[in-house]
Recover the amino acids of this structure.
């Protein structure tokens, strides 16, 4: 009987030990209250070797942003003990009381925990320390959809920051940091204050009332009690967050703000500071009823460059004209695509469209370049029409127009008394082209060019956009070539001319040179005086083109010297 009682006692002791081990995974969080959009740390600690914890139950209420592992060994009075900890960074998926469920690591498990997730506006503006403030301000005045609005975040601190991370909010807007952080010192009530400012550009995506949630500053300040002790944990026993700080110091703390914050990676007292939320009324396009295009900007100008700078215009010879649209306080995607109709006496061919963006102290400068080939079709005076772009001055709220005045060029060649044959005028638009009517308002370019430095030189950093290559273009060329051969056999100059235009749209720049020459020859024949008219041999003209059908049919073959132009050239600064 005594033996039986002893056996039962031993069995009970074993069951008790087994239950203790099953619950031997401690779980602690560094805060019981967190703002939505913020993250916090869950520390799981085991005092014996075990498998890694299964974190899948956390996905029900949290996003796991990262995990790390650390182990510690202690020897006290000759007794050796070892523990392992896992530090899990979590972001809550919703507000309210969220439960961290029991986590299992091998035979061990933790107890459930609960955290309270609040809207950032319900959280204290400063937690964990004193003497730190965070504020955000925007320029006053009217604000428009897609406008570039300056926003400044200001940090004031009466104590040094060991590390800090500024977290910008998200929403129906875009925030872009500009320039470098600025640091200065002021004195308030006899106490020195460090001031740090960071600039952003805010672009609202919607109209109506818009709320910019609070900015959040997280970091550490020196702990007046000195370095954390492994036995000074408010949870009792060793402090897992002191261990976490030490581990992060060895790894290098990610995400911290660069200058002017130093990163000494020392144990310190954590803090969180928040700004007030901002509200503004975002206005829509004031001319929405009359114009679909909307370009809010600080300034807009049009420029042109001829290549060569002082060209000689001759009938049938192409001259390159580059027209640039420049806008201060806008993005390239906000700039319009222009269309260019043929004037009387010339053909306009679109070659390339390039875009660029440069950050300046005054704001973003967006640029779109249209490279055109101007081919006179007769001699005499040829007038190139005015080009105009509507835009909204965000400073005054006025609708303005940037213009490139009309200009007349003198062309060497035959001046017809009357055109006996003509080809219908046509426009050569870019994708999503929009045309603009003539206007009388202009813009003084003095302040605008001053903001751009030396004008065009400022745009030396190119970020070109290339139109996608059609994988079926070779088959399309074969089809167009067949059309050209049929038109040549039938001496149908109109069909042949249209076929050349289609072929030009499918060709590379080297091939276009030959096609432009052929088009110019047809133009000269069309506008020549009746008495001097000579029929063009279309078959002979077709043979001069550099794009030919292979002997096996169907495809075109490039010459051995033909090369594809480089895509996305390297930026040069």
């Amino acid at each position: 009987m005594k033996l039986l009682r002893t056996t039962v006692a031993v069995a009970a002791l074993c069951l008790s030990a087994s239950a203790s081990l099953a619950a031997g995974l401690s779980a602690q969080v560094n805060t019981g209250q967190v703002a939505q959009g913020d993250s916090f740390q869950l520390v799981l600690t085991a005092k014996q070797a075990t498998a890694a914890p299964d974190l899948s139950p956390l996905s029900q209420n949290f996003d796991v942003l990262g995990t790390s592992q650390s182990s510690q060994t202690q020897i006290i009075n000759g007794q050796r003990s070892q523990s392992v900890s896992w530090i899990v960074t979590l972001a809550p998926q919703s507000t309210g009381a969220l439960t961290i469920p029991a986590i299992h690591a091998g035979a061990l498990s933790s107890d459930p925990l609960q955290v309270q997730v609040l809207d950032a506006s319900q959280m204290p503006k400063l937690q964990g320390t004193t003497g730190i403030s965070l504020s955000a301000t925007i320029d006053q005045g009217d604000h428009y959809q897609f406008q570039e609005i300056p926003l400044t975040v200001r940090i004031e601190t009466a104590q040094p920051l060991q590390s800090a991370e500024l977290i910008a909010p998200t929403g129906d807007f875009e925030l872009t940091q500009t320039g470098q952080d600025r640091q200065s010192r002021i004195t308030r009530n006899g106490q020195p204050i460090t001031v740090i400012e960071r600039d952003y550009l805010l672009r609202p995506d919607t109209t109506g009332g818009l709320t910019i949630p609070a900015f959040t500053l997280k970091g550490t300040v020196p702990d007046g009690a000195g370095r954390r002790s492994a036995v000074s944990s408010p949870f009792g026993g060793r402090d897992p967050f002191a261990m976490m700080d030490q581990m992060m110091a060895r790894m290098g703390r990610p995400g911290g703000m660069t200058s002017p914050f130093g990163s000494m990676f020392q144990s310190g007292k954590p803090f969180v500071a928040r700004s007030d939320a901002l509200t503004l009324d975002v206005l829509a396009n004031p001319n929405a009823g009359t114009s679909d295009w909307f370009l809010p900007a600080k300034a807009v100008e049009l420029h042109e460059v001829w290549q060569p700078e002082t060209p000689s215009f001759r009938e049938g010879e192409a001259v390159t004209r580059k027209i640039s649209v420049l806008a201060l306080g806008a993005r390239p995607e906000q700039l319009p695509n222009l269309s260019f109709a043929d004037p009387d006496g010339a053909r306009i061919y679109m070659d390339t469209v390039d875009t660029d963006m440069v950050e300046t102290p005054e704001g973003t400068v967006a640029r779109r370049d249209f490279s055109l080939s101007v081919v006179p079709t007769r001699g005499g005076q040829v007038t190139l029409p005015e080009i105009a772009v509507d835009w909204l001055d965000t400073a005054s709220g006025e609708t303005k127009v940037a213009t490139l005045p009309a200009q007349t060029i003198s062309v060497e060649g035959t001046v017809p008394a009357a055109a006996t044959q003509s080809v219908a005028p046509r426009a050569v638009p870019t994708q999503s082209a929009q045309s603009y009517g003539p206007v009388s308002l202009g813009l003084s370019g003095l302040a605008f060019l001053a903001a751009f430095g030396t004008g065009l030189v400022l745009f030396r950093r190119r970020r070109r956009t290339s139109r996608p290559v059609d994988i079926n273009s070779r088959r399309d060329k074969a089809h167009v070539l067949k059309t050209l051969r049929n038109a040549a056999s039938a001496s149908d100059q109109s069909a042949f001319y249209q076929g050349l235009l289609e072929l030009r749209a499918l060709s590379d720049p080297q091939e276009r040179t030959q096609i432009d020459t052929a088009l110019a020859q047809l133009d000269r024949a069309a506008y020549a005086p009746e008495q001097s008219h000579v029929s063009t041999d279309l078959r002979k003209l077709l043979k001069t083109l550099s794009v030919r059908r292979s002997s096996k049919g169907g495809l075109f073959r490039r010459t051995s010297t033909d090369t594809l132009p480089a895509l996305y050239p390297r930026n040069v600064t």
Remarks:
- The chain is about 15% helix and 40% strand.
- Residues 2-22 form the longest helix (21 residues).
- The first strand starts at residue 25 and ends at 29.
- The helical segments are 2-22, 240-251, 445-451, 473-489, 493-505, 509-527, 538-543.
